[in-house]
Amino acid sequence: MTKENVLRTIDSPADLRRLHRSELPQLTRELRTFLLDSVSRTGGHLSSNLGVVELTVALHYVFDTPADRIVWDVGHQAYPHKILTGRRERMRTLRQNGGISGFPVRTESQYDAFGTAHSSTSISAALGMAVAAKLQKVKRYSIAVIGDGAMSAGMAFEAMNNVGAAENMPFLVILNDNGMSISPPVGALNACLARLTSGRDFAQTSTEAEYACASTSEAHAKGPNVPDTLFGEFGFHYIGPIDGHNLNALISALKEIKQQPGPHFLHVVTKKGKGYSFAEQDPVRYHHSKEAFGLKEGIKPSSAPPGKSYSQVFGEWLCDAAELDSRVVGITPAMGEGSGMVRFAELFPHRYFDVGIGEQHAVTFAAGLAADGLKPVVAIYSTFLQRAYDQLIHDVALQNLPVIFAIDRAGVVGGDGATHLGSYDLAFLRCIPNMIVMAASNENECRQMLYTALQQTSPTAVRYPRGGGTGVETERKMTAIPIGKGEVLRHATGVSKIRIAILAFGSMVAPALGAANLIDATVANMRFIKPLDTDLIYRLATTHDAIVTVEEGCVMGGAGSACAEALSALCVSLPVLHLGLPDHLIDHGDPVKLLADCGLDIPGIAASIRTRFQLPLSETQ
Ligand SMILES: Cc1ncc(C[n+]2csc(CCOP(=O)(O)OP(=O)(O)O)c2C)c(N)n1
Ligand SMILES: CC(=O)[C@@H](O)[C@H](O)COP(=O)(O)O
Ligand SMILES: [Mg+2]
Questions:
Q1: Residue 274 designated active-site
Q2: Its family (predicted)?
Q3: CA torsion 57→61→65→67, rounded to 10°?
Q4: 338 CB under 6 A from ligand 2?
Q5: Are residues 497 and 557 in the same domain?
């Protein structure tokens, strides 16, 4: 091969497996260069991918994919895997409308054995696959690749607790230990891993190959019942830790593992951001880039949109609230940066709890804090709150504990796509007794709603979308909003023959106002999904000919459904149109376009109303 052309010849792992082992180092160099170039053009997850280049090459080199199954935990590190499994050219479409996903998706490729994006599912899924292979008498390997951050979640431990189901089976868990979650790691497991990696003098050179082989055989010599680490206690043959950038060591270890019955646990140590100095130095910033960036310059802070994001508004409010009330504590399940809590963590280190990836624990931990007199604020993305649903009901709501849920990324999120869609929170929160649920229509209202939440003695949720809002300034002064009260922002002027009232929720208030200007409708900012302002609904329903509800959440069971239930209970009958996120998955892409595709922008809302109520264009423009 001539220089710099190996990657071009790899259209599938079968091509990779035809390479001579001596050609692999060049392939990994080209793969890393291609990855960097590609992500710098599209944006997306970077540091984690840079860290698994050698591991990905080694896995596809040693194992017979797609027959052998690889489950990538979270899947944000699966870009090298995508590049090597026939999607090299499509990387330029990554996370864009109609392009390939930033996560493994079964329908995208036969090499994506299992869809991931929410963390810590890989061991369970791969274990299921191993057992399925055995029951179906198929010979194939099942492999979970899980990061040290994802490993700390309850699900990973539930799966390991069940690993006896894979006794003597070709089952392998690879722990990719880069000593980082998105943020620096937290917790006892991390400390345990740090002891493992520092306690053993694992070499950084080719001698590691021998080390890996030796320790594999050693593990087998001991037999499955001899624990040598925490993972050994669970029943794995523990191998490692080995240098995850040493291709020879990786290949030797994997080949050795392949020869022996499982379950195996291979502990590899990698560097997040490997090979790109900006990312190596600042893996937190380079975990993910929202957009394209110059490789020489790196990600610029100036690329942030003008105005405050909702996460910033939340973070500022949290600092102010903590200043005012010493009972306020902030909790994040491993999303401190994304949730806007960096300043709070600096100012109030003893009142800041990054509990690692552990949404269930975060919520019940908050319930405990609230039970004993504190004011816990759980900052959580809508999509990740799904994981703590029972804790929300059983531990918080049933005991009516005043936990505040600051629900970020509610609605369409953009590049992360269907797995991260914050579509369901309104529907799944509004049916829980004792809950108060608000949706912020702009940044200032978000601040005031959070303040309102702090005054409550019941569990209270404030939801807001990813990114910025309307750009309004936040007032320093905080005033509680009357519970369960909406407000009319615009009155129809009477130009239209059909008098329409739009009941708008949260982020849909602004586009609803825009649409109302086109079709001449009344617009109410409902503010509360629960308790709903039924007086306002009654007043509007009895003075208008039709009601339209608009929300950035699933139409089924959401805020609009709550309004329909209220109308029915009030015995008011009139035509109602519900607008919101449809009953199908919303893929990745530009969030503005995705919302427009759902008819949730100004022209879309106006068009849906015109069509439904047969408003002539001439009458309403
Ligand atoms: C249930 C869940 N909570 C939070 C996240 C957000 N998240 C994505 S990657 C990540 C860090 C994962 O760390 P690790 O597994 O060590 O992988 P690394 O990024 O270090 O490669 C987090 C917190 C998620 N995807 N799923
Ligand atoms: C993979 C994952 O879950 C996170 O990295 C997520 O992509 C972050 O999303 P935000 O960019 O919205 O914080
Ligand atoms: Mg990690």
A1: no
A2: Belongs to the transketolase family. DXPS subfamily.
A3: -150
A4: yes
A5: yes
Q: Which of 69, 140, 272, 274 is catalytic?
A: 272
Instruction: Quick: pLDDT tens for 371-430.
Output: 999 999 999 999 999 999 999 999 999 999 999 999 999 999 999 999 999 999 999 999
Phi-psi region of 43 (alpha: psi -120 to 50; beta: other; left: phi over 0): left
> Is the CB of 82 within 6 Å of ligand 2?
no
CA distance 285 to 304: 13
Residues 268 and 151 in one domain: yes
Taking only Cα atoms into account, the Rg of the chain, rounded to an integer number of angstroms, comes to 26
Q: Does 334 sit in the ligand 1 pocket, CB within 6 Å?
A: yes
280 catalytically annotated: no
Distance 178 CA to ligand 3 centre (A): 5
The CA 451 to ligand 2 mean position distance, Å, reads 27
How far does the centroid of ligand 3 lie from the alpha carbon of residue 271, in Å?
A: 9
Whether 569 and 504 map to the same domain: the answer is yes
| Shared-domain flag, residues 35 and 115 | yes
The secondary structure of residue 83, as a DSSP letter, is: I
What's the number of CA atoms in the CB half-sphere (13 Å) around residue 205? 1
Name which of 100, 83, 89 is nearest 32 in CA terms: 83
Is 276 annotated in some ligand binding site?
A: yes
- Which tens digit of pLDDT belongs to each residue from 9-65? 999 999 999 999 999 999 999 999 999 999 999 999 999 999 999 999 999 999 999
CB 588 less than 6 A from any atom of ligand 2:
no
Number of structural domains the chain divides into: 3
583, part of any domain? yes
pTM: 0.95
Same domain as 495, residue 459: no
Note whether 62 and 162 are same-domain residues: yes
How many A from CA of 77 to the centre of ligand 3?
10
Q: Which of 387, 430, 463, 530 is catalytic?
A: 387
* Ligand 1 atom with the shortest distance to the CA of 77: 21
Tell me, yes or no, whether 470 lies in a domain.
no
Domain of residue 315 covers 311-463
178 is annotated as contributing to ligand binding: yes
Q: Known catalytic residue: 90?
A: no
